[in-house]
Prior knowledge:
Helix content of chain A: 40-55%
Largest sheet of chain A: 6 strands, antiparallel
Order of helices and strands of chain A: HHEEEEEHEHHHHH
Structural class of chain A: alpha+beta
CATH architecture of the largest domain in chain A: Sandwich
Shape of chain A: globular
Distance between the termini of chain A: 38 Å
Oligomer: homodimer
CATH class of the largest domain in chain A: Mainly Beta
Number of strands of chain A: 6
Number of domains of chain A: 2
Number of helices of chain A: 8
Radius of gyration of chain A: 17 Å
Mean pLDDT of chain A: 91
Amino acid sequence: xxxxxxxxxxxxxxxxxxxxxxxxxxxxxxxxxxxxxxxxxxxxxxxxxxxxxxxxxxxxxxxxxxxxxxxxxxxxxxxxxxxxxxxxxxxxxxxxxxxxxxxxxxxxxxxxxxxxxxxxxxxxxxxxxxxxxxxxxxxxxxxxxxxxxxxxxxxxxxxxxxxxxxxxxxxxxxxxxxxxxxxxxxxxx
Amino acid sequence: xxxxxxxxxxxxxxxxxxxxxxxxxxxxxxxxxxxxxxxxxxxxxxxxxxxxxxxxxxxxxxxxxxxxxxxxxxxxxxxxxxxxxxxxxxxxxxxxxxxxxxxxxxxxxxxxxxxxxxxxxxxxxxxxxxxxxxxxxxxxxxxxxxxxxxxxxxxxxxxxxxxxxxxxxxxxxxxxxxxxxxxxxxxxx
Lengths: 189, 189
């Protein structure tokens, strides 16, 4: 829970008393490699703040092809937000690629915290703003057909993950072949 | 300004006194057809809430090819948010397709309003949440290679714009040819 406090205080300082009232809304959960936190068809009950580990959020199309929406690691937030915010069945999967721990927060908890503490509403708004920017960047990257640019944006977004994520998934995220990825790697060393 | 109040009160009611303190942060601006509100290279100083009119947000790649990020109409918000939030030069263009009016808000105004009024911080958070969901949906739509699905999502997102936006731009948004678009239209009547 100390990590949670640090995470919040990167945005806004809270008093001990405030933090005591915030803590009960979060539950901590260990996640094993290959374990799924969200599966298509289930309702996404939680959003997850990653304490440690690496995760992959993906979408399976009607032909069973996987499309990676995002990777997520320490301090990132993730969920199927369409499902989470609308309380509808999920369209996406969230799976663990490297074992770790996450903090879980329900939508009800999120709303209650926001109403109770202006500081928490601020915290959520700022985090959401950062998330919004990341998504707009992902859209531009998807719209552009330049593998070099996608690669550059990926390296920029996930500087710590380049060596940790199997190349197979990076190629998939970028929408390029393994050969093209190797060329991009060697060109950017 | 009455529209602004209505727009805010769709999320949270405000008193007359509160609204008087909110109003000065917004300026109203008329926009003509083909007029640009944001151009690549400029800093996006404002976010815009659309009172009336239709707008197109697009990105121009290095080859000069246009990629449509979103359309926007009444009550939608738009900006180059990467530029707006980070105070960096814009990568995108915002252009008017049908003349109208917008309410302009600076980032400084946005932050001041959020700090001064918990209600406004709430309002921005809720709007941002809706925007976040729309972007996540756009990403899934882009990742999926099914024109039918993209078309369905487009129709769902912009039910009022189907007849108002030139087909050329709809085809571009969906990443399909004019012929494919005609087929999708006739198949969904």
